[in-house]
Design goal:
Helix content is about 15%, strand content about 30%. The chain contains six helices and 27 strands. It has a six-stranded mixed β-sheet with strand order 8-5-7-6-10-9, with no helix packed on it. The protein has a six-stranded mixed β-sheet with strand order 17-14-18-22-21-19, with helices on both faces. Strands 23-25-24-26-27 form a five-stranded mixed beta barrel. α1 runs parallel beside α6 and α3 packs parallel to α6. The longest helix is centred in the C-terminal third of the chain and has 19 residues. The model has no long low-confidence stretch (mean pLDDT about 95).
Length: about 400
């Protein structure tokens, strides 16, 4: 990708590779399993107990001996004497005697001597007995200890990101603690004298701040710890003070605005004065060309342009990859692939990130991409319809209908 990009600008693919090359995961730590939601395992996790932990009933019914039911028919039902009651959470060491049954609820331990479960809808209940009019084979509705997994079975490999379902699986297998990489702490600095919080009365030349809500909302969707989100004036001293504080308390710093070549674009100069090593500045992408990336003692600084669409690209493509690396996620971007339903806007010099809608290809029934209008870097109104950010390479005919392009989900 990017074979036709502008000379002197770093290709997008090389920027993504740079994050993997210069960043290392945050130190892993041992913690309770429930505290690790959204985190990536630093070590494999194995089952502490068998699942199921014991032989148990899969239904509400009656524990019985299959041999006692071998001759049961509708015309000649078998009568079994009730000798006990086993609710979930309790057990009995009393062996089931021949000709007897015990009431048992779903998940309760099967008593010694029983080898099958008779569903309650299959019996006629009497005061102290049940009548069964069918043969019930051994192991019917009976879960055996360890049939799902046994102690020591690997449940999750290192590099697995823990969602709610995985947490539940680990907890059920007796895993109380895991070793995982923490989520990165993020500080957001929104620069620009012209941007004001929504709801304020604007003076001539001022605009409402979209970048603050965009970055905060994006981080919240990921469950990312936010140290703070601060508005910073376009003054050298203010940028310096805010960035110095952020470097002391954050793993990742995201700035919006102030990274181009304007008279008040101070972020690159301040960053380098504060000892941040620059790894690249300016990418062969549109929007988001003047993206700045550097590090200081493990803290990553990503300077995004001020236009909201460029911020969206920076978050979805670049910040997401930085966070994956710092959080120990070995997987790269979760690309999707789909065919363009119509021509996209061509560009011979820079790769494009275009907001598109996912829909069904009327010819094949497969997922396809429909480009949206209003793609300029200062526009965001099409986010009401956009599902994905599509990567359309510069040059060639990658922008034409029927081309297959990569995309990243926006929702």
């Amino acid at each position: 990708m990017g074979c036709g990009t502008t000379p002197g600008l770093l290709p997008v693919a090389e920027a993504l590779a740079t994050y993997r090359r210069v960043l290392t995961p945050l130190p892993a730590r041992e913690q309770p399993v429930e505290a690790a939601l959204g985190q990536v395992l630093a070590a494999p996790v194995r089952a502490v107990v068998d699942l199921p932990l014991f032989d148990q009933s899969a239904v509400d019914g009656y524990a019985a001996r299959s041999v006692d039911l071998a001759v049961a028919t509708q015309d000649s039902p078998v009568r079994l004497t009730l000798s006990g009651d086993i609710p979930a959470g309790q057990s009995t060491e009393t062996a089931l005697a021949p000709g007897c049954a015990m009431r048992i609820l779903t998940g309760a331990p099967v008593p010694p001597g029983a080898d099958t479960i008779v569903r309650q809808e299959w019996v006629v209940r009497e005061e102290d007995a049940i009548r069964v009019d069918r043969v019930v084979a051994p192991d019917t509705d009976l879960r055996h200890q360890g049939e799902e997994l046994q102690v020591g079975t690997e449940l999750a490999a290192a590099g697995t990101r823990l969602d709610a379902g995985r947490l539940a699986a680990l907890a059920m297998a007796g895993v109380a603690n895991v070793k995982a990489y923490p989520k990165a702490r993020v500080t957001v600095l929104v620069t620009g004298d012209e941007v004001r919080p929504v709801g304020e009365r604007l003076r001539p030349g001022q605009i409402y701040d979209a970048n603050g809500p965009l970055v905060r909302g994006w981080l919240a969707q990921r469950g990312q710890p936010l140290v703070r989100c601060q508005a910073v004036a376009d003054r050298f001293e203010d940028v310096c003070q805010a960035l110095e504080q952020a470097l002391a308390e954050s793993d990742v710093i995201i700035t919006t605005g102030g990274v181009s070549v304007g008279d008040r674009d101070y972020v690159p100069e301040v960053a380098e004065r504060l000892g941040v090593t620059r790894h690249f500045w300016k990418l062969a992408q549109k929007p988001g060309k003047p993206l700045w990336f550097g590090t200081r003692e493990g803290t990553a600084l990503i300077g995004l342009p001020g236009n909201p669409a460029a911020v969206l690209v920076g978050l979805t493509v670049h910040v997401a990859e930085v966070l994956r690396v710092l959080e120990g996620d070995p997987a790269g971007p979760p690309w999707g692939h789909a065919r363009l339903l119509e021509d996209a806007r061509p560009d011979d010099r820079r790769d494009q990130w275009l907001r598109m809608r996912l829909q069904t290809d009327p010819l094949t029934g497969a997922t396809a991409l429909a480009p949206l209008p209003r793609q300029a870097s200062h526009m965001l109104s099409n986010l009401m319809a956009a599902d994905v950010l599509a990567w359309v390479p510069a040059g060639d005919d990658a922008w034409r209908a029927d081309s297959v392009v990569r995309w990243l989900a926006l929702k």
